[in-house]
Amino acid sequence: NRLIVEEALNDDNSVISLSQAKMEELNLFRGDNVLIKGKKRKDTVCIVLADESVDDQKVRMNKVVRKNLRVRLGDIVALHPCGDVPYGKRVHV
Question: What spatial distance separates the first Cα and last Cα of the chain, rounded to whole Å?
Answer without folding.
Answer: 33
